[in-house]
Amino acid sequence: MTVVEAGGTRLNVERLGGGAAGAETVVFVHGIATDNLTSYYFTVAPEFAAAGYDVVMYDQRGHGRSARPPHGYGIERFSGDLGALLDELGLDRPVHLVGNSFGGTVALDYTLHHPERVASVLMVESEPPTDAWAKKMSGLLAGSAYQLHDERTLPWIEETYGRHEARLVRWAMRLLHGTSVAEDIAASRIPAEDRWHGLDVPVLALYGANSDLADMAPWLESLLPRCRTLKVSGHGHSVLVGTPETVGPLLLDWVGHRHKELVGGAPRAVPS
Domain named AB hydrolase-1: which ranges (predicted)? Predict the structure, then answer.
C-alpha cells in the first residue's frame, strides 16, 4: 500500500507486478459508493500482473483509504485525480484504463481531455458523462443516502449479505452522508456530445447482457469512432465480480492485441 498526494488529495494506491523493463501499465478505476480498489484486487488485477503488466489500482477520493473531502465530487475532480496520479507515479507513457461502472465514466472523461496519455479504455458496465447520466447518478446517490438513514438498513444488510457487504455500506454512508457527492455529480462538467466523435482512442465497452445499460451498445458505437462493445450472457451490472473468470480473459485479450485492430461492429454475446 502506498499513499500518494495527487493534486492535493491523498490517494491510497496498490501496485502489482511491474513486469519487465518497458512493461505496459494498466490502471484500474473502481465504481462509486460501495466500491474500492479491492473489487479489482480480488478479481482480474492479479491476472494482469501475472501476464507481465504493471498494474495500478487506487481508491478514488471519498472511498476506501483515500481522503474524503466534504466537497469536490464532480466528474472533472475524479478525472483530475487520475491525471495527477499518473503524474505522481511518473507514468509518462500511454496507459490502458480499466473502469468499472462509475470508474469507466471517469476513465472515459479523462481520455477525452487527455487522449495522448491513453493507449486504450476498457469500460465495464459504464457510460459516458452526459447530462442524462449526471441527473440519473445524482438521483441514485441521493436516494441511497435517504435509504441509509433508516437505522434498520445496515443490520438487515449484514444479516442478509454478510459482514463484508455491510462494511462496504458503512463506507458508502460516510461518503453519502458526509459529503456533497450527489449535488456535485449533478453539477459536473459535461462535454459537448460532438466532442466524442473525434476521440481517436480504442474503447472496449463490456456489459452484462441482463443489465439496463446493455441496450446503449449501438448508440455508444455510433458515438465513439473506435469503439467495440461486448455482452456477457447471464449477467447484469455486477458482471465484473460475478464472473471474473470470463471478464479477465476478455480484458487481457483487448489490452494484448484486440485494441490494435480498431474494428467496430455490432455487439456480440459472450458465453458465461
Answer: 25-167
CB atoms within 10 A of CB 86: 23
Q: What is the pTM of this model?
A: 0.92
At 33, is the secondary structure helix, strand, or coil? coil
Map residue 185 onto helix, strand or coil. Answer: helix
Domain encompassing residue 244: 2-129+192-270
Q: Check which CATH number belongs to the domain holding 54 and give it.
A: 3.40.50.1820
| Number of structural domains in the chain | 1
Q: The cell 459535461 sits on which residue?
A: 190
**Cα dihedral sign for 42, 180, 158, 167?**
positive
The C-alpha atoms of residue 12 and residue 67 are separated, in whole angstroms, by 8
Residues 173-224 pLDDT 10s: 889 999 999 999 999 999 999 999 999 999 999 999 999 999 999 999 999 9
Q: Burial level of 175, CB count in 10 A (0-12/13-18/19+)?
A: buried
Q: Is residue 166 part of a domain?
A: no
Pairing outcome for strands 227-232 and 268-270: parallel
Nearest CA-CA partner of 126 in 52, 262, 29, 201 = 29
Does residue 39 form part of some domain?
yes
Q: What is the pLDDT of residue 155?
A: 75
Low-confidence ranges of the chain (pLDDT < 50): 263-272
